[in-house]
Design goal:
Helix content is 38%, strand content 22%. The protein has 299 residues and is an alpha/beta fold.
Length: 299
């Protein structure tokens, strides 16, 4: 009898010893999620079609769908099927601070992976490639960057796209006034209401805003491409465990064809709330990024 009791005690002790070890194996974001039993997803309110609100004020989009897949993978890895999921709106200005201070665990918006940002945060492997361009009204008389001299230009607070105008040879010697919108929708509205002559931003974000505007035919892109940039889900820096998991999850979506299906859903099909089709075919650069997944940032 004593021998049986001793064996039982040793079994209990061994289980107790293993449990802390499992907990200690979790670091960074995974440990935070495990401790709080909650994962917090940062989203944008007007980054069509990546992350925006539908008519019911629910976050939807290409990157929202991808992050939902990530959340399910986290639940499986941590064996937490009832993990609480909180959705937290972020802006261009506060997305990095909210990630750094632990308010959100990942940002599922439309953030460019740049070498400069990699000093503050990390990124999962690229899920989109965009080109920075300038949109104007067709009746504005503006045909190229040189025509923007002396004009008010809309830009979104917390972004750096407008600075690229000066780096282009046609924009090097022009002067312009920046007018700030709190998000991309407000920045585009500045052009729609003629408070600004142009809006400089990633082409796909502009295309989404134009497609859902009252008069899409009023707008056109200037011919110059200011820069080509990769997008990725943004993560906390110096968290190799969660970073490796994110890359594996994104790569699995790419390999299985799920990423391509999501692209077709959000870029080549009618999307809410107006059922507009952006008709934005996958670029050769994104096909290359999917063929060779990487997290390389733009300089």
């Amino acid at each position: 009898m004593k021998r049986n009791l001793l064996a039982a005690a040793l079994a209990v002790a061994s289980v107790a010893a293993v449990q802390p070890a499992v907990a200690q194996d979790l670091t960074g974001t995974f440990k935070k999620i495990s401790d709080t039993k909650t994962i917090v997803v940062g989203y944008r309110e007007s980054s069509v079609p990546f992350s925006y609100l539908d008519n019911n004020q629910k976050p939807i989009g290409y990157h929202i769908d991808m992050c939902n897949k990530v959340v399910e993978a986290v639940k499986t890895k941590l064996k937490m099927p009832n993990l609480k999921v909180e959705m937290q709106p972020v802006t261009s200005a506060n997305r990095i601070p909210l990630l750094q201070n632990g308010t959100i665990d990942m940002e599922c918006g439309s953030t460019t992976n740049s070498v400069a940002r990699q000093e503050q945060v990390s990124f999962a492997n690229s899920t989109f490639i965009t080109s920075v361009k300038v949109v104007v009204k067709k009746n504005s008389g503006i045909k190229s960057l040189a025509d923007l001299d002396g004009q008010p230009i809309a830009t979104t607070s917390g972004t750096t796209s407008v600075q690229l105008i000066k780096q282009n040879e046609k924009g090097a010697n022009i002067n312009f006034k920046e007018i700030y919108g709190k998000d991309h929708a407000e920045s585009f509205l500045l052009v729609a209401n003629d408070r600004a002559k142009a809006f400089v931003m990633d082409d796909i974000l502009i295309a989404g805003l134009v497609a859902q505007s009252k008069n899409p035919d009023e707008y056109m892109f200037l011919p110059e491409i200011l820069r080509t940039e990769p997008y990725g889900i943004m993560l906390r820096k110096d968290d190799p465990q969660f970073k490796a998991f994110m890359d594996e999850t994104v790569n699995a979506m790419i390999k299985s064809g799920e990423a391509e299906k999501l692209y077709a859903k959000w870029f080549m099909s009618p999307i809410p709330p107006k059922n507009v089709n952006l008709n934005f075919p996958m670029s050769a650069l994104l096909k290359e990024a999917f063929a060779n997944p990487n997290d390389k940032g733009v300089k």
